[in-house]
């Protein structure tokens, strides 16, 4: 709703100003489309709902004004009708422009708009100029005084019915009451009435006295209680002008505050949008953080499992190392006890690494004691012959673990090899 207030000061013939006030309302009542056609959502949908509610209240006010039987007009049910109270049923002229379209698609909206405008057209107001009643009455009295003075100066007789003694007695020491009829008559008094055309006749002394008395009575109407109503009217006009200026300043201040409010509202909307975007960004970062946290926990669990597996493997390797160390110490001990040093070098020269089986092999191992024992023929039945004991001082004997202890004992007791317990390998020097 746009409101324009105008104050017009008119200069009269006596160099006095006459103030008139007018107010102009420009209102856009928006469209009558349904929500299903406009497709409005969110904030626009809420605004459209409030606008439709105001238009509905405006329709109720128009119906109440058209219906002469209605005693109550619901102006206060909406801010729109409250602002347009003077435009609808007050001292104003109202023009409503209804925009319609010929399309069949908008048939219902067109009929509704035309009915709405028809109801508004049936409102009847009697518009009058917004003028101070005191100014109108004073101007009327001044015009009468000027006419009487002119008649006295020209020596013209008083027309019949121009005055009455009752009027003089009634207005001797008081001002006529201001009523709506006085206001209605005052706006019609824009120019001074010309005296009725009568033939100029000489004025008798009694008529001159009557004119003087009437002039004094009219001046008494202006001077009441020692106070000049003309001067008072001028003061009131000055106060009115000051009030109008103050009102204009207030309206300017209000417009400025309204602009500041719109700026603050825009800033608030921007902050809300920024907050929404930051909140959405924070939510996205929170989701990413949860995923990264889950991956970190999974990686920690995997690292823990790998660490435990490595620990187990290290313990297994350490056990193997300790076992191998023990076996190596055992083998070294056995070598020190049973293998002379000069035979070790010979064994090392004849040993070679077999890639296929991944072991060290010794040449001519097939001729060692254990292997030769397997090839011996069984003893023939009959009397046993005494087998001479060979000289084994220069022969190196090897045994497997199974026969090692037994062969050692046998050598200690008999000093000869037993064919059923061990086999020999002879090496020539």
UniProtKB/TrEMBL annotation:
SMART domains the record matches: KISc
Gene Ontology molecular function, alphabetical: ATP binding; microtubule binding; microtubule motor activity
Annotated compartments: Cytoplasm, Cytoskeleton
Positions in coiled-coil regions: 226-327
PROSITE patterns, sorted: KINESIN_MOTOR_1 (PS00411), KINESIN_MOTOR_2 (PS50067)
Biased composition (Polar residues): 420-429
Annotated region described as Disordered, given as residue ranges: 156-176, 407-429
Domain of life: Eukaryota
GO cellular component entries: microtubule
Domain called Kinesin motor: residue spans: 1-123
Keywords, sorted A to Z: ATP-binding, Coiled coil, Cytoplasm, Cytoskeleton, Microtubule, Motor protein, Nucleotide-binding
One of the Pfam families matching this protein, by short name: Kinesin
SUPFAM superfamilies per UniProt: P-loop containing nucleoside triphosphate hydrolases (SSF52540)
GO biological process, one term: microtubule-based movement
PANTHER family membership: CHROMOSOME-ASSOCIATED KINESIN KIF4A-RELATED, KINESIN-LIKE PROTEIN
Similarity comment: Belongs to the TRAFAC class myosin-kinesin ATPase superfamily. Kinesin family.
Name recorded for this polypeptide: Kinesin-like protein
Organism placement in taxonomy: Eukaryota, Metazoa, Ecdysozoa, Arthropoda, Hexapoda
């Amino acid at each position: 709703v746009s409101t324009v207030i105008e104050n017009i000061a008119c200069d009269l013939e006596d160099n006095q100003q006459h103030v008139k006030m007018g107010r102009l309302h420009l209102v856009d009542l928006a469209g009558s489309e349904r929500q299903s056609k406009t497709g409005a959502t969110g904030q626009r949908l809420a605004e459209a709902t409030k606008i439709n509610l105001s238009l509905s209240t405006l329709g109720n006010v128009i119906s109440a004004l058209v219906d002469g039987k209605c005693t109550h007009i619901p102006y206060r049910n909406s801010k729109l009708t409250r602002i347009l109270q003077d435009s609808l049923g007050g001292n104003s002229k109202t023009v409503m422009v209804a925009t319609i379209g010929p399309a069949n698609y908008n048939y219902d909206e067109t009929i509704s708009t035309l009915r709405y405008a028809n109801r508004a057209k049936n409102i009847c107001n009697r518009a009058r100029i917004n003028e101070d009643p005191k100014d109108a009455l004073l101007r009327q009295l001044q015009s009468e005084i000027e006419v009487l003075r002119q008649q006295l100066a020209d020596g013209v007789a008083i027309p019949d019915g121009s005055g009455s003694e009752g009027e003089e007695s009634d207005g001797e020491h008081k001002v006529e009451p201001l009523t709506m009829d006085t206001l209605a008559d005052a706006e019609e008094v824009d120019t001074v009435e010309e005296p009725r055309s009568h033939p100029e006749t000489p004025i008798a002394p009694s008529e001159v006295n009557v004119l003087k008395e009437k002039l004094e009575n009219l001046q008494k109407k202006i001077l009441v209680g020692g106070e000049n109503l003309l001067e008072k009217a001028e003061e009131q006009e000055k106060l009115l002008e000051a009030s109008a200026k103050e009102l204009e300043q207030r309206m300017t201040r209000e417009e400025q505050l309204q602009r500041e409010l719109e700026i603050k509202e825009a800033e608030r909307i921007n902050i809300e949008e920024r907050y929404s975007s930051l909140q959405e960004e924070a939510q996205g970062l929170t989701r990413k953080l949860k995923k990264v946290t889950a991956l970190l926990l999974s990686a920690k669990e995997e690292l823990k499992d790998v660490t435990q597996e490595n620990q187990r493997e290290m313990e297994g390797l350490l056990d193997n190392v300790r076992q191998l160390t023990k076996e190596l110490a055992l083998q070294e001990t056995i070598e020190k006890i049973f293998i002379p040093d000069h035979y070790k070098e010979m064994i090392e020269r004849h040993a070679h690494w077999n890639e296929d089986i991944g072991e060290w092999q010794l040449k001519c191992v097939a001729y060692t004691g254990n292997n030769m024992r397997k090839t011996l023929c069984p003893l023939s039945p009959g009397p046993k012959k005494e087998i001479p004991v060979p000289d084994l001082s220069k022969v190196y004997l090897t045994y497997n673990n199974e026969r090692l202890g037994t062969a050692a004992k046998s050598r200690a007791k008999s000093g000869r090899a037993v064919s059923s317990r061990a086999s020999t390998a002879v090496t020539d020097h």
